[in-house]
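Notes, Module 5: Reading structure tokens.

Key idea: the token line is not a picture. It is a compressed description, and you learn to read it the same way you learned to read a sequence, by spotting repeated patterns. We will look at two proteins. The first is printed below with its tokens.
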Amino acid sequence: MSLARNALLRASKSQWLASQMTQRAFARRAVKRFMPGEKLSDALDAAQTLSPARIGTIITRLGETLTGERNTDEVRDHYLSALGEIVRRKLPTQVSVKPTQLGLDLSVDECVRQIAPIAAAAAAEGQLLWIDMEDSSYVDRTLELYEKLKAANDKVGLCLQSYLFRTPKDLQRLLAIKPAIRMVKGAYAEPASVAFPAKSDTDAQYLSLGVTLLEAAKQGGAFPVFGTHDMSLIQQLVAKAAELGVAPGKFEIHMLYGIRSAEQRALAAQGHAVRCLISYGNNWFPWYMRRLAERPANVWFVVRSAFM
């Protein structure tokens, strides 16, 4: 892991930095590159602009682990309201939730109780509900959560992270229930005992896991989603899908708002199913630091924003 990436990931955990940066106008200007605004309406407005380009969207409210300012009922009701607004606007938009916002630290059963109504509301509109994966300490609980939700509702997807050593075994476990899997590389500060320090190893495992998902998809045993901005990996996996006969629409490509926008449009124009993940909310500092850590050169964008 580079020194810059490590520093940014450490900074993402600082409450003091978060309180300072979220009050700075230049930081708020800089974050708009990756986030259209803090309100749900900002995210849905952005989703509306992408729809004509045949780019679907996913929205998620930022924040991890419950604090005194929110409770699980409030988060559940917020997402139910968001789904209602998506239906009202007739948007091709899905929702992704963080389990620790919905009670995972309390218990898996409490989290199931809170997420199940959101999943049911999404399924009623024919949409998947996505479950985010947080840091490695939550993997076992999140797998259990997903299995319980999936047993009652097939329209639920889960994020897995290719930089964790354990992920191939986790994927094999989940293939038994024909999962929808969004594969990402991983963006948390993880020790070398659980995650690859080298990008090349993470990339190699990503490709291997992607091929496994496509092979399962060929038999109707998985719905693969490739959440990456790495165009080399995307091109290799798109080629593998064609080789296996996995048609566009039987897998998706997901990217973040504000990153590789031209490539998102080009892939959609080629007939691929593309979704853009749009984040919103005022608790954006940890998430933004992890986005910068993915490409530390973007720090210069923040510096320039301070003088605009």
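Here is the second protein, with the sequence above and the tokens below, as before.
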Amino acid sequence: FCLIRRPEEAAHVLGKLLLAVGEDRVLWGTDSIWYGPPQPAIDAFRAFQIPEAMRERWGYPELTPAVKRKILGANAARVYGIDLPAARAARASDDLAWVGAAAREWQAGSADR
């Protein structure tokens, strides 16, 4: 079931997972094949926090930016043997590098508007 619409349940599920298996063994997944692009869910997760009261009561860990980076991709990269620094370097010079540069330029320009 979709936890994005149930933040309290999502906090419990994620908190229990982190306690049971640790931050190095939780991988991000979506139902984007059925529901469309995952970016809104990714953005929601980046902003998501397990409430302090829940962390205190059940001992759930805090969702730091480092933990979120692991869950969103670094853990999967490790599982699949992907060297993240090498992948980032390759991305900077691949055939689609211009798309990222154009997006950054557009974002910088829209900040001035």
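Summary for the second protein:
- The radius of gyration is 17 Å.
- The mean pLDDT is 91.
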